[in-house]
Design brief:
The longest helix is centred in the C-terminal third of the chain and has 25 residues. The N and C termini lie far apart (49 Å). It is built from 12 helices and 17 strands. A hairpin with a 4-residue loop joins strand 2 and strand 3. The protein is of the alpha/beta class. It has a 4-stranded mixed β-sheet. Helix 10 runs parallel beside helix 12. The protein folds into 2 domains: 242 residues, Type I PLP-dependent aspartate aminotransferase-like (Major domain) (Aspartate Aminotransferase, domain 2), CATH 3.40.640; 59 residues. Helix content is 37%, strand content 18%. It is globular. It binds pyridoxal-5'-phosphate. The site of pyridoxal-5'-phosphate (PLP) has 15 residues, from helix 4.
């Protein structure tokens, strides 16, 4: 053993909090301190912590069968895939374990679509500035964040990037080597930036015109977060391929890549795989998560909560305009663009025992569990208000 490096590879700058258990929108430290969780494990715990229906599904499956591999039929996969197909544009689903893997599948599928159609030249994917698609070598190349790529050798070939929302630049970037366009309907890590609905519609038309595939990365904005099952639905368009992850497992690692029959035409037996992908435990939780999100009235309630929260946040931004410049986002995927360093607001909220997540463009993300109650929202608003006041008091003192 060498001293100096921590036993856990030190690739994260972590907060000093450690939690022992959770319940609904709250998590508790070993000492019993309660925190209001408006980060939801980065938009993962859509049904909050320890949701009884999820706990039951997981423990019941845990007593029966954990893993068999994809050498065999997995009934839970067939059920979850059928339900996702019934409720989306998609005809077929591949299961994996994370968001980056779901995007990898999407990129491979888009390339294979063209080669299987005899067009070997089309392999490039156009992405958008400030995008985030994961941390594998290909998804890093797709996101093209210098700070993530630095020092990791040659960037995987096959990605071009244009400014988010810039249709002209996009039109110019399309060549006869372009296979697909990959977009987050709402950029998450980039700072809660929703694409305009008319941009998404124009993007869909442009892809159709050029015979290229549209990939919507709904890993963060999907699964009910915006008050529709998937965010692209607000624009009235459908992608050809859609990687999802985060909330679909409610906290159990699960990713999926949804596609139309046409887009998936090249993905025949042997072309892609995963040892763990879609194992019985993950499928039990995925199906249980979907049970709740598809319940009558669930998404209406998300929209109602979102409206309440965004109105209250607008008032806070008014009152504390020295701290918060703008409130943006959609549904329960909201961003506070800060005038102070966003890390200061995240820390001040930590002092108020409220968890949130930083993002690019100096934004603080609010991603509460979708089951958040009106009382939880009131409490959150109080804590944000207090955090802003504390920051103002500190600035006044140092001035
Ligand atoms: C989180 C995220 C990913 C990567 O997911 P991992 O599970 O961390 O691999 C990809 N795309 C978007 C939009 C995300 O928010």
């Amino acid at each position: 053993m060498t001293t100096g490096i921590t036993p856990v590879l030190p690739t994260y700058a972590r907060f000093p909090f450690a939690f022992e258990r959770g319940e609904g929108v709250r998590v508790f430290t070993e000492a019993g301190d309660e925190f209001l969780d408006f980060g939801a494990g980065i938009a993962v715990n859509a049904l909050g912590h320890a949701h009884p229906h999820l706990v039951e599904a997981l423990t019941e499956q845990a007593q029966k069968l954990w893993h068999t591999s994809n050498l065999y039929t997995i009934p839970g996969q067939e059920k979850l895939a059928r339900r996702l197909v019934e409720n989306t544009f998609a005809d077929t689903v591949f299961f994996c374990n994370s968001g980056a893997e779901a995007v990898e599948c999407a990129i491979k599928m888009a390339r294979k679509y063209h080669t299987s159609g005899g067009d070997e030249a089309r392999y490039r994917v156009i992405t958008f500035e400030h995008a985030f698609h994961g941390r594998t070598l290909a998804t890093l190349a797709a996101g093209r964040q210098q700070k993530h790529l630095e020092g990791f050798g040659p960037i995987v070939d096959g990605f071009d990037q244009v400014p988010f929302g810039d249709l002209d630049a996009l039109g110019e970037a399309i060549t006869d080597e372009t296979a697909a366009v990959l977009i987050e309907p709402i950029q998450g890590e980039g700072g809660i930036k929703p694409a305009e609905p008319q941009f998404l519609r124009a993007l869909r038309a442009l892809c159709d015109e050029h015979g290229i595939l549209l990939i919507a990365d709904e890993i963060q904005c999907g699964m009910g977060r915006t008050g529709k099952l998937f965010a692209h639905e607000w624009a009235g368009i459908a992608p050809d391929i859609m990687p999802i992850a985060k909330a679909i497992g409610g906290g159990f690692p699960l990713g999926a890549c949804l596609a139309t029959q046409e887009a998936a035409r090249g993905m025949t037996a042997g072309t892609h795989g995963s040892t763990f992908g879609g194992n019985p435990l993950a499928m039990a939780v995925g199906n249980a998560t979907l049970d709740i999100i598809l319940e009558e009235g669930f998404l209406d309630r998300v929209q109602q909560a979102a409206l309440k929260l965004s109105q209250k946040l607008a008032m806070i931004a008014d009152e504390h305009s020295g701290i918060i410049e703008e409130v943006r986002g959609q549904g329960l995927m909201l961003g506070l663009k800060c005038r102070v360093p966003n890390t200061d607001l995240v820390a001040a909220l930590g002092d108020e025992h409220m968890l949130v997540v930083g993002a690019g463009d100096n934004v603080v993300r609010l991603l509460p569990p979708l089951i958040v109650s009106d009382a939880d929202l009131d409490e959150a608003v109080d804590r944000i208000s207090s955090a802003c006041a504390a920051l103002e008091a500190r600035t006044a003192k140092s001035a």
